[in-house]
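4.2 Preliminary Data

To establish feasibility before requesting continued support, the project team ran the inverse folding procedure on a target of 303 residues. The structure was first converted into the token representation described in Section 3, and no sequence information of any kind was made available to the design step. The complete token record follows.
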């Protein structure tokens, strides 16, 4: 079993993780649903902390963690496992000195993948961006979540049905269905989980995260967060800037050894570069100019 467990993570708290009342409320509710026997699904736009919250929740559950990242190329075998190579056994019978009897058996080898490991040993499964996998690949989850039973191909032998370990639990994350590369969740699967919609963090959480990632004092981190949140709240960008924007600006300034100041031209340029990048997919000149004007106004107001 040791080689199988190389893909298993210990449920240790994330470094620099900030648990504000906002985060504690989400994870507290999620723990109740999992204790009641239901999988939890964190759904929300990019940058709203879905994966980080899922990892934090898993650390609170205290069981080893298996992570799967959704992929459009996945087949069911990529989740549960499949046959890989052969095992050959040779026997040389020399019962009579002058007579040699040879026997050779060749059997297919079954290799468990991550979903099977979690189900078998009662680990916590984090299925990140699960809607990026095709619905037919995810169908194997239906009996696991409802009947607590996993079926495997008949070629595996006698062990074609596997009872789900009592400690097994699942945490899912996904982007909204309108995102590129996201498949529509089949109703039968969605009906078996508790979906919690996450939005951008509140001000206190964004402030505390930015401080933790940059080691900036509260006043300086607050300037950055207010600029990023102000751009988001303007409603005039192609995409909303996220907490990642605040972290990127703060860490870049930290590397340079400077604090946010409207008199500092380097600070202004860093804000422009990062926030223009965060808020546009195609890099249109119109969006760049719009962002530049808004960011300049916000810098004058908050820095």
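Position-by-position output of the design step:
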């Amino acid at each position: 079993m040791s080689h199988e467990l190389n893909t298993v993570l210990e449920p240790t708290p994330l470094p620099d993780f900030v648990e504000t009342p906002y985060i504690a409320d989400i994870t507290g509710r999620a723990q109740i649903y999992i204790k009641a026997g239901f999988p939890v699904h964190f759904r929300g736009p990019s940058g709203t902390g879905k994966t980080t919250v899922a990892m934090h929740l898993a650390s609170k559950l205290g069981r080893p963690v298996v992570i799967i990242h959704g992929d459009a190329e996945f087949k069911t075998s990529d989740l549960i496992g499949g046959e890989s190579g052969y095992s050959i056994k040779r026997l040389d019978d020399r019962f009579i000195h002058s007579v040699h009897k040879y026997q050779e058996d060749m059997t297919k080898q079954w290799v468990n993948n991550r979903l099977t490991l979690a189900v078998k040993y009662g680990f916590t499964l984090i299925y990140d961006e699960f809607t990026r996998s095709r619905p037919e690949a995810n169908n194997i989850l239906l009996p696991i979540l409802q009947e607590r039973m996993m079926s495997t191909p008949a070629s595996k032998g006698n062990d074609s049905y596997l009872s789900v370990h009592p400690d097994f639990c699942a945490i899912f994350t996904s982007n909204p269905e309108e995102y590129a590369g996201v498949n529509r969740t089949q109703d039968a699967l969605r009906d078996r989980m508790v979906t919690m919609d996450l939005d951008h963090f509140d001000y206190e959480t964004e402030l505390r995260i930015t401080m933790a990632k940059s080691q900036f004092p509260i006043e300086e981190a607050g300037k950055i967060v207010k600029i990023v949140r102000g751009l988001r709240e303007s409603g005039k960008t192609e995409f909303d800037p996220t907490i990642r924007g605040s972290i990127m600006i703060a860490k870049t300034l930290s590397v340079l050894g400077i604090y946010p100041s409207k008199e500092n031209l380097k600070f202004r340029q860093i804000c422009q570069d990062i926030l223009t990048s965060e808020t546009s997919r195609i890099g249109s000149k119109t969006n760049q100019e719009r962002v530049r004007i808004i960011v300049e106004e916000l810098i004058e107001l908050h820095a």
